[in-house]
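ARCHIVE CARD
Drawer: 12
Card no.: 0347
Subject: one protein chain, sequence and derived structure
Cross-reference: see card 0346
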Amino acid sequence: MGWTGALRRVFSPDLPGVYYELLFVGFSIMMGMSLSSSFLPLLANELDPSGVLVGLVVSAWFLSRIFIELPAGIISDRVGRRRLLVTGLGLSLVGPLLCSQASHVIVLILGRAIWGLGTALYFMSNMALLMDILPQSTRGRALGAFQGIEFLGSFVGAPIGAFLAVYLSFTQVFYFTLLLTLLSFTVAMRSGGIRGLEGDKASKPRLSMREISGSLRNWGILVVCFSTLLRTLVIQGVFQTALQLYLNQVVGLTVAGIGWVVSMKVLGQVLSLFVAGALSDRYGRRPVLVVGFSVSALAVYMFTLSESLLFLLLSGFVAGVGEGLDMTTILALLTDIAPPNARGGAVGLYRTFMDLGGFMGPMVFMLAYSRFGPVSPFYVGAAVNMFNAALILVARIRRVA
């Protein structure tokens, strides 16, 4: 099958060729998304010097997603994944186009909201497709490799975006995101492998809407979803909002310096993602999750200890390691406990909780930043991560798939 066949020979002959097509799409999407990661809060602050709407610029990415993830997941169990995946990529073209024209903070918020809606449909469908095609015996390892390659795109994109922002305006960088998203959209539209999976899905017996919703009333799924909410609360509140402002306003780093800290975080993610899945396959999901949340707590606290660039780079790397360990493992845990015929609904519920955390995180942590000082978000974030580790340690989660 051309280039996918070559990749199968290099990586794993046991995985279907469509896995690598999805991988290419994911790499391009993540690289495009990360181009603005080092300067988005700074752009928002320029457009809204009062700072009132800075948190909402980040939160808008998740606002529209809160209401679409669960219905879209259930619909995908009924009509197939491909249509929603392609629709999501199409909407993801509109978002960066609007952001590139943002001369007012409201336009930036609108662009982020539409962009977030598109990526919600894409990531939900993509995740459900992976659940459909990956065997349980190697699921953790395959998910880890997939997410590792995706976040390799983020690792490449963050410093490139920071570099472009030095020579171009912040808004002009979004044109490069638009090109990468268009590439992903084209590959997904033309992929015979993804179209074939939709045909496979159509041939399987479908549950009724009542059966799908009933299968999601599972204590283990709810624990995983709540843990995801807490995890995303810290990621979006600290690492996507407060950290950039702290590094610029308190430490005095330029956009390029912030880009390197963000890149080191992504590098830690990439390296740990490649091993997290294999570790969770061998030692279990729960121990790896507890270690991941504990490492994340330590990393958040480390940012408060020194303003040395070298130490900040190390802190970013450690944060990425912790985030990579829990990112793959919590998804693998969800696939273990989600009913096979209702995986789209389970993914939708999981991502709804994730979006709630993403929506609340920037505003909550910006409130702490402005009222209690720039260091306070890091203390709160460390505490939330430790609570998350304790929750996973004591919760009763039963595998049903």
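Annotation on reverse: The chain has one domain: 16-202+215-394. The mean pLDDT is 80.
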